[in-house]
Here is the input.
Amino acid sequence: MMWIACKNLWRYLKNYKKLLGFTIGSIVIVQGLLLISPLLVRELIDNHISGIEQVFVEVSHESDKTVLFEGSIYKQMRYIDAKDEILPKKIQVIGGTGGFYYTNGTIEKGGRVFDTGRNILTVNTDVGKIEYPIKSLDKSAVIKFYTPSFKPMIFLICLIFGRAILTIIFNYFQRLTTALLTINITKDARMDAVESLHKMSIAELKSEPAGKLSARIVHDVSGLMTLFSVIINIFFNATIGLVFTYIGMFYLNPLLAALTFLVVPIIYFWLRRFSKSLYRVASRATEVNSLIIANVNEVINGINILQVFNQKEKSKTKFNVLSKEFVEEQMNEVRVQLAIGWNLIRFFKAAFTCAIIFYFGWLQLGPLGGVVLAGTVYAYLDYLNRLLDPLDLLFIEFGNLQHALV
Here is the structure.
C-alpha cells in the first residue's frame, strides 16, 4: 500500500522536479549547517573561553599571540611555532572561586579545591593530594591572557551568527517551495478527481451515497498532501538529520556514538508495532468519519422526507451512534500514541541525557582518568537532542502517515 501511495504521489511530483530538487537541496544545506553549529560552540568554549587554562610558556620575543606579564613574555603551547625560543619558565591560569588565579608551573588534572584564605589550590589526583600556591589575577591581567584569543573568538561568534542567518534563509525557501509543491499537487489531484467523477457510470454513482463519495475524494486529496508532508519530514528531514548527527557524534566520541547504534534494532521493532496498531485504529476512524459526512449529506438532502414521515428522532439516533463511535476510535488513537508513541520518546530522551552526563562524569572522575571539557559535553548533548528529535518527529508523523495511507 505504501508503494502504491508513493507511486500515485510521484505521478504529480514529477511535473515539478525543479521545485522538488530545490526543496531537498535546502534540507541538506540546513542539516549541514545544524551539524557544524555544536562544533563551533565547542571550539569557542573549549579552546578559547576555557582555553585560558592551557599552559603558558616563556618565550624570547613578542608576537600577536604573546602575553607580557610581570616582565616576562608568555605564549601558549598551541601557538608555538618554529621561530619561538622556549624558555624554562611556565605558568598556568585557572578559574576558580571568585575569579582567576595563576601558579608557577603546571597543575595536575583532578578535582580542585580552592582555599582563597591561604591562597592554596588543592588537587585530588590518583596518587593523592597536591597543593599549589596561587595568586589572584586582577581584571586587566585576565584581559591580557585572553587577548590572543580575541580574534578567533570574534571570528567564531561571527560564524555562529552567520550560520543562524543562513539556516533561517534556507528554512524559509524550503518551506516556501514545499508549500508551492503542496498547492500544485492538491490542484492537480482535485482536477483529476473531478475528471474521474465525470467518467463514472450512473450505476457506480448510485452504488454509494453521494456524501460518502465526496468525503472519500476530499480525504484522498488531503491524504496525498499529508503523504507528501510526511515524506519531506521523515524521509528527508529526519533521515538526513540522523546521518549528519551521527557524523558529529562519531567526530566527538566514536565509542559512545557506536554504543548508540544498539538502540536502532529496538527502535525498528518498536516502530513496526506502533505503525501496525495505529493503522488499525486509523482505518476505522477514517471510515467512521466518512459515514458521518455521508449521514449529514443524507439528512440535508432528505430533510423534507424526514419531517413528513416523522423520522427525525431515528435520524438523530443514527447520527449519535456514529458520533460516539468516532469519539471512541479517536480516543483509541490517542491511547496508542500516548502508550507506545511519541510520549514514550520524551521519557527516553530524559533517560539518555542522564546516561550521557553519567558517562562523561565517569570518564572525568573514573579509573580511566580522561579529560572532559564543557564544550564537548554541550556539543554531545546537543547532538543527542538532534538524534532524538527526528525520532520524536518520526512517531508524530507516523500517525499522519497512517491516515494518509488509509
